[in-house]
Write a structure and sequence with these properties.
15 strands, 449 residues, 5-stranded mixed β-sheet, 4-stranded mixed β-sheet, alpha+beta
């Protein structure tokens, strides 16, 4: 909303943004990032979704003086100058403990100790890319800071990465800099975390774990690649929890370690790899980044037929996606990820099923009632949400409004081809796991390394 207000202001159209009290700090960060630190804002006190009708009416009426004052007030349309240290400037000298404290005080760390980004360390990272240090990949909101090769190397050092990871780090930032990824929403209230998926030969070359203990901290490449992205979102995009306040995640999780696929297992089954599903060849090294707003329980399934496993996957993975599907349904970026244990994938493939067969099964058998979808949407503030309206607008297929019965069932997965399927995990156990993305925010983006 504030970004739309900034566009209006620059076009000479006065605006006032209505922001609730809990979002005021984030609004200040966004206003500064779009170059309008004095963007007029009217503050709604409290949380409207927990206010009754009378309280809402009273508070809205009280907003009128703020709205009038904001529309009539003077405009500050100049971009705020931000004094930041340029590349190669020595910002601090001291002992290791003193450096940690200095970085912590300036909100440059994630709360964990960092590797001090000395010039020598950074130069070793830069030696692994042909791009110039001052090359700009893009500008990252909410603070609208330039994402440069230099800043990638600096944060890679701080995260504990090895210099040879640099090409992967660059591809990660290229992915999140794509407008369709919507990095500015990585600080939204659901508290979603990005997930890095590394495919192709480079995953083997850098020794990423894809087997037992995958997604657990411990393997350097998996852990530091995930930590790098969280540091980069803090330090460059400006997504910090208070006192930085660019991140409004209500109850957020920790960073995800990077995920790699057991591509040998997928090849043995005759299945395309996850990287191939994104349009690349097995010889391509690829980074994919997508949001993860929640993770399913571990999904244990048993049996010698594909259907026996598919039924459990539909029940547990589908259930994890169901609550959030009311929001995801209306966006083409509704792209959940199913990580299949190698033993589960083997049974499904040997029974003659392809990945697309599994996707079709999930599409047909994972459903939610219309009443549930609309009720869940209401809880997050979509007060006018109806499936019928989305069908009429062409957002949803006609099947979502074949009747007005609130107990009719509709598919959770609108576009089954968007379900990511990846083979990884302990080959000696019968476990899979599902990852739910945050609808239009953090849509799946892949970049060749």
């Amino acid at each position: 909303m504030l970004r739309a207000a900034a566009i209006a202001e620059r076009a000479g159209v006065p605006s006032v943004s209505i922001v609730t009290t809990p979002f005021m700090q984030q609004a200040a960060v966004v206003s500064k990032g779009v170059g309008l630190p004095s963007l007029p804002i009217a503050e709604y006190p409290g949380v409207p979704m927990t206010d009754g009708p009378e309280a809402v009416a009273r508070k809205v009426e009280a907003l009128l003086p703020q709205i009038i004052a904001g529309l009539a007030g003077a405009r500050d349309v100049a971009r705020a100058a931000v004094a930041e240290p340029p590349p190669r400037e020595i910002v601090y000298r001291g002992s290791l403990e003193e450096i940690q404290e200095h970085f912590h005080e300036h909100l440059w760390s994630d709360g964990l100790p960092v590797i001090p980004p000395t010039l020598a360390h950074v130069e070793r990272f830069l030696a692994h890319t042909r791009r110039a240090p001052d090359d700009v990949i893009g500008r990252l909101l909410p603070e609208n800071r330039a994402a440069t090769i230099w800043s990638i190397a600096v944060n890679g050092v701080m995260a504990g990465c090895r210099p040879e990871y640099m090409p992967v780090l660059v591809a990660i930032v290229e992915a999140i800099a794509e407008p369709i990824f919507r990095v500015e929403d990585a600080g939204s209230t659901p508290g979603w975390e990005p997930l890095v998926i590394v495919s192709g030969p480079i995953a083997r070359r850098l020794d990423l774990n894809h087997g037992q203990g995958v997604m657990r901290v411990g393997r350097q490449a998996n852990t530091t690649l995930g930590r790098f992205l969280r540091l980069y979102l803090r330090n460059v995009a400006g997504l910090r929890i208070p006192p930085g306040a660019g991140d409004k995640g209500s109850i957020a999780g920790s960073f995800n370690v990077a995920l790699a696929e057991d591509e040998a297992a997928a090849a043995a089954l005759g299945w395309p790899t996850f990287g191939a599903d994104q349009g690349f060849t097995r010889e391509d090294s690829v980074v994919t980044v997508q949001s993860v707003v929640s993770i399913s329980p571990p999904i244990y399934s048993a049996g010698t037929r594909a259907l026996e496993h598919a039924r459990i996957l539909a029940e547990v993975f589908g259930g994890a996606c169901g609550y959030w599907s009311s929001i995801g349904m209306k966006y083409a970026r509704w792209e959940p990820l199913l990580v299949l244990g190698p033993s589960i994938a083997r049974v499904i493939a040997e029974d003659g099923w392809s990945k697309d067969d599994l996707r079709r099964y999930l599409h047909e058998h994972v459903t939610i009632t219309a009443r549930q979808a609309e009720t869940y949407a209401l809880q997050v503030g979509a007060t006018s949400y109806t499936l019928e309206a989305h069908v009429k607008a062409g957002v949803l297929p006609a099947a979502y409004a074949l009747s007005t019965d609130p107990e009719r069932t509709v598919p959770v997965f609108v576009q089954p081809e968007k379900i990511g399927i990846l083979v990884a995990g302990d080959p000696g156990r019968n476990q899979s796991k599902g990852y739910v993305n945050n609808h239009i925010q953090g849509g799946r983006v892949s970049k060749r390394i």
